[in-house]
């Protein structure tokens, strides 16, 4: 596949610099390091899948800016994002492709948008975002999030949605991600990260098994 034009490369670095400045002190798990990992992984998937690299990379960079979970200071309305993209010289069609990806891709809204297929570029970014919630980095992020919220490490006995814990989050979301991958490349990478989470939970159960009930940590 042909490389990206100089102009597009320049636009990508303008977006990256802008997003980096905005999210450098973000504290809800959508920080700049997460964005950089998703950028890298999205590109890797896009290359293997033959997706457009510019749309993929641009969407990866801005994918969390409109997330409701971001604090008001970091979040921005779609209209402001559109203006900014156009300010970087990105044409309307490309801006629309990018915006369509990031509005449709969230895990939470997956029911709402389930009939609207993501573009190949969107599939790459969504897989990359989900992969970053899996594996070693996903484990680390889950415990950081739980720590920030004051949640327990795990609960003994049955799972209760109203009683959150770090381990509970694996069953609510992280262990489901493997089967939600869009692309072949995503599925291959997810396989490895899923296995790692499984063996982590199994070790955790062994180390925490002071009571029968801790068996709940690692279950089918
Ligand atoms: P996204 O918007 O990227 O789909 P979230 O905002 O839900 O993801 O989560 C950001 C990070 O925090 C992810 O790594 C996710 O697994 C973690 N996280 C979200 N909710 C919880 C929770 N209740 N307990 C532990 N970790 C969580
Ligand atoms: Ni994200």
Summarize the structure.
By secondary structure, the chain is an all-alpha fold. The protein has 9 helices and no strands.
Q: Provide the CATH top-level class of the largest domain.
A: Mainly Alpha
Strand coverage percent: under 5%
- Structural class based on helices, strands and sheet pairing: mainly alpha
N- to C-terminal distance? 43 Å
Strand/helix succession: HHHHHHHHH
Helical element count? 9
Helix content: 55-70%
- Largest sheet, if any? none
Protein name: HD/PDEase domain-containing protein
InterPro entries: HD/PDEase_dom (IPR003607), HD_domain (IPR006674)
Organism: Bacillus sonorensis L12
Pfam families: HD
Structural commentary:
The chain is built from nine helices and no strands. With 220 residues, it is mainly α. The model has no long low-confidence stretch (mean pLDDT 90). It starts with 5 loop residues before the first helix and ends in a 12-residue tail after the last helix. It folds into two domains: 1-113, Cyclin A, domain 1, CATH 1.10.472.50; 133-220, Methane Monooxygenase Hydroxylase, Chain G, domain 1, CATH 1.20.58.1910. Helix content is 58%, strand content 0%. Adenosine-5'-diphosphate binds next to helix 7 and helix 8. Nickel (II) ion (NI) binds at residues 30, 34, 38, 63-64, 129.
Give keywords.
220 residues, mainly alpha, Cyclin A, domain 1, Methane Monooxygenase Hydroxylase, Chain G, domain 1, 2 domains, globular, binds adenosine-5'-diphosphate, binds nickel (II) ion
Task: Present the secondary structure layout.
Layout: H1 6-23, H2 32-49, H3 53-62, H4 78-87, H5 92-104, H6 120-131, H7 135-149, H8 166-172, H9 184-208
Helix pairs in contact: 1-3, 2-3, 2-6, 3-5, 3-6, 4-5, 5-6, 6-9, 7-8, 7-9
The protein binds adenosine-5'-diphosphate and nickel (II) ion.
Residues 30, 34, 38, 63-64, 129 line the site of nickel (II) ion.
């Amino acid at each position: 596949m042909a490389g990206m034009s100089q102009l597009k490369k320049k636009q990508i670095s303008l977006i990256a610099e802008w997003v980096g400045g905005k999210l450098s002190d973000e504290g809800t798990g959508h920080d700049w390091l997460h964005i950089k990992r998703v950028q890298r992984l999205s590109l890797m998937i896009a290359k293997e899948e033959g997706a457009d690299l510019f749309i993929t990379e641009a969407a990866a960079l801005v994918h969390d800016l409109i997330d409701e979970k971001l604090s008001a200071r970091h979040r921005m309305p779609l209209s402001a994002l559109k203006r900014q993209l156009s300010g970087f010289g990105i044409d309307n069609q490309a801006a629309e492709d990018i915006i369509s990806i990031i509005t449709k891709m969230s895990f939470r809204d997956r029911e709402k948008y389930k009939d609207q297929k993501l573009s190949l570029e969107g599939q790459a970014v969504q897989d990359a975002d989900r992969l970053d919630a899996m594996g070693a980095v996903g484990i680390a992020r889950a415990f950081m999030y739980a720590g920030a919220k004051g949640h327990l490490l795990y609960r003994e006995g049955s799972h209760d949605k109203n009683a959150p814990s770090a381990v509970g989050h694996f069953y609510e979301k992280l262990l489901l991600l493997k089967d939600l991958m869009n692309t072949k490349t995503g599925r291959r990478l997810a396989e490895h990260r899923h296995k790692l989470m499984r063996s982590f939970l199994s070790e955790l159960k062994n180390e925490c098994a002071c009571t029968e009930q801790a068996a709940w940590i690692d279950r089918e």
